[in-house]
Amino acid sequence: xxxxxxxxxxxxxxxxxxxxxxxxxxxxxxxxxxxxxxxxxxxxxxxxxxxxxxx
Length: 55
Prior knowledge:
Layout: H1 4-7, E1 13-15, E2 18-20, H2 25-31, E3 39-44, E4 47-52
Antiparallel strand pairs: 1-2, 3-4
């Protein structure tokens, strides 16, 4: 099992013509997110913020 400090370190990878990252399953479960859920990605300075999309 990975050390807790290393669990949140992720690699950026290219998937077809886009880039992707994997997210820790524990965090996805805490947020209650599901497969194919729509999310909003916004940029704040040098950071990306990922939020649930609400209609």
